[in-house]
Amino acid sequence: MKHSLFFISAILLFSSFQVFAQVSGVSSKIREIEDCRSEIFVLQNSETQPEDEQQHKSPYQKEIDSFKSQLNSLYADLESESYNANSKDKFYSFIILPYDKENMCWPIQLTLTLDNGKKVYEDQIKLLYSQVLKKKFVPYNQMTERQISDYEFLVDYYDNLFRVQPEILHSEISFKIQHWIKAGEYRFIPIEIKFFKTEGSTLQINSIQQENLKPQLFYINKDIEIRSLSEIAQDSLRAKNIILKEDTPSVVEEETIAAEDKKITGRKTVYITLDTLTTSLDFSEINVINSNANMFGTFTLDINSFLFWGLSFGTNINFTSLTLPDVYSLGAEFGAYTTFKNFFRPYSDLSFMFSSNADLSLGLGAGFDLFIKHFLLTVSANYNFNTNALSLSDWSQFTDSISQSFVLKAGIGFTW
From the centroid of its chain, how far is CA 293? Predict the structure, then answer.
């Protein structure tokens, strides 16, 4: 008999340790993933400049590629297993709320954390009166006076018991974790939640399956972004395919996926602008009606998450004449941008323009894009240095021919 009791105690102790190890295990895996992401982030943002700077390659590209390969393996390992937690350990807990007579249940508030205290899952479930008492519930309006008296007594009894002796109930949860769309974003997938009641013997009184539980998202180091635009798009597509394969996708997740799909990244644009010239620093000489202006069609593409390039083709317009344009221009630009709130995108650029009358122009500019969905309004100002290619043969004539001007632009178009 003593040997049997010892054997049973050993099994229970091992089970508790195994649950603890699983919660600690998933915490260790996520910590290792975040350490790897941090290493990549440090390498990507090192102040050391590459020798082949014009090719925009990091001197640590081999190390970065190695870390990214390791990171993918860590993600695969994290997602390959199911994990368990028990309310008898410190990571998984619940609070029993007072009895809800309207729904005939005890609401239970669940919380699961990692070993660093990070909350990764919380939910509220219901323990029905019939589940706790293990007896069929008779609707209140069909109860006899004796049944009403017993019902109210038992509700008060268990309300008090749960308050002074909450350990009479314990719970187990099994779950999986996936890396998700945004930087540092993870998806917690509850597979099953069980509740047990111990009054003399231990009985399972409730089991909630995956189809009745909703995945939740949590974040760790969400400011550390190490992915390229194409890698972000791949993660978004991967998550979308996962959601589509599931029978009961979360509405919140569907909205998140849709928002990511609609989110405009980079500076990919097609737009038409109209500009006018002035030679005065205080802009007092601007007179659109009496001056020539230029109309340009521009196409831009992003190089990475903050650089872009573009090409422009334009012609001159005279508002006081109906004659056909006699000067055509071709230009190129290279610049930097950032995006705020998915509707405001300031940028700066360096541009070069060559015209059919041999005029050359080098410009420094700054502006901003405003966009609603894919409709674009763009405004910019450029400070230009102008000359004529014919003067290049004579250096003194060339230096004397350089002039300066402001160019103000406004236009509309599309972005994606």
Answer: 43
Beta strand 119-128 with 201-209: parallel, antiparallel or unpaired?
unpaired
SS3 318: strand
Query: What pLDDT score does 245 carry?
Result: 81
Tokens of 326: 């006699």
Query: How far out from the chain centre does Cα 5 lie?
Result: 52
In eight-state DSSP terms, residue 131 is H
Scored b (16 or more CB within 10 A) or e, 34-66 reads eebbebbbebeeeeeeeeeeeeeebebeeebee
Torsion angle in degrees (nearest 10) through CA of 282, 284, 290, 293: 20
- Return the beta strands (E) in 180-268 as ranges: 185-199, 201-209, 216-219
Torsion sign, CA atoms 307, 312, 317, 322: negative
Check if the beta carbon of residue 328 is closer than 8 Å to that of residue 322: no
Distance CA 394, CA 390 (A): 9
Q: Is 257 exposed, middle or buried (0-12, 13-18, 19+ CB in 10 A)?
A: buried
Question: According to the model, what pLDDT value does residue 22 have?
Answer: 74
Which residues, other chains included, contact 150 with Cβ-Cβ below 8 Å and sequence gap of 6+? none
To which residue do tokens 């196409």 refer? 299
What is the token pair recorded at 131? 């589940």
pLDDT at 63 over 60: yes
pLDDT digits (tens, 9 = 90+) for 288-309: 444 567 888 999 998 877 899 9
β-pairing verdict for 83-86 and 169-179: antiparallel
Q: Pick from 268, 340, 332: which is nearest to 304 by CA?
A: 268
C-alpha dist (Å) from residue 275 to 278, 292, 328, 402, 408: 10, 9, 14, 20, 5
Using a cut of 0.85, tell me whether the model's pTM lies above it: no
SS3 394: coil
| N- to C-terminal Cα separation, the chain | 74
Residue 396, pLDDT above cutoff 90: no
- If you average pLDDT over residues 227-249, what whole number do you get? 84
Tokens of 286: 């601007």
Q: Residue 304 phi/psi, 5° resolution? A: -150, -155
CA dist 154 and 101 (Å) reads 12
Give the C-alpha separation, 61 to 44, whole Å.
Answer: 8
Residue 3 has pLDDT above 50, yes or no: no
Are 45 and 25 in contact by the 8 Å Cβ rule? The answer is no
